[in-house]
Amino acid sequence: KFLIALLLLLVLARPLHAQDATGAISGAEMNNWADKLRDGQDVPLRVGWTGGGGHFMTCTDVRGKGDDRRFLISDPWTGVTSWVQEKAIKDGSWTKTFDGGPGALTHLYYE
What we know:
The protein is of the alpha+beta class.
């Protein structure tokens, strides 16, 4: 049921590129993402691996502000769920939390 809902969200929602032209995630994009979560909307996301390919995950909650802001991210493939610091999302170090290779957040999906 979860995977069906995730696929529907990916098909129906428009993807927003999380990275700017330099490959960085803007503060405004992080704030938009957090606002959607605070409004009760789960946010599917895509990670692009440095070696090619990608992977989808879901973010369901946000806590804290500024440097303390953390996002609750779940990987439906492995079943791993973890609170991830905003700084780790921005620098790409968070993907190792999910046994993934080096990569970066590439897309967020929400209306």
